[in-house]
Design brief:
Blueprint (H helix, E strand, L loop, with lengths): L18 E7 L2 E7 L6 E7 L1 H11 L4 H11 L4 H17 L4
Antiparallel strand pairs: 1-2, 2-3
Length: 99
């Protein structure tokens, strides 16, 4: 008989401070954060495929468990690995003033 360990994923829904557009350029993903009022470009950063999934989900208002589910459907990772990725990405957005 195997033991099943379950963990509740803390739900984080966040608001982004900028309007963000994501473009694929030369096999890389570039995100451009614009001020919603002035339309000025405030920040430009690159993303990997996982970052694109997470950022698009955040832009659509998804919370952490929903984004973790998306990563689990897309990649061969554990729920803990997916949650760690999501939380690290959200922390990066906060550290850079994007969220």
């Amino acid at each position: 008989m195997s033991a099943i360990c379950t963990k509740t994923i803390k739900s984080k829904t966040m608001k982004l401070k900028y309007d963000i557009a994501i473009q694929e350029v030369a096999d890389k993903f570039v995100a451009v954060a614009k001020n919603g009022e002035t339309e000025e470009v405030e920040k430009v950063f690159t993303l990997n495929e996982t970052g694109v999934i997470i950022l698009r989900a955040l832009m659509e208002g998804a919370d952490t468990p929903a984004i973790v589910s998306q990563l689990l459907a897309e990649y061969d990772v554990t729920p803990q690995e997916a949650e760690t990725e999501v939380n690290a990405f959200i922390d990066m957005l906060k550290e850079n003033g994007i969220a």
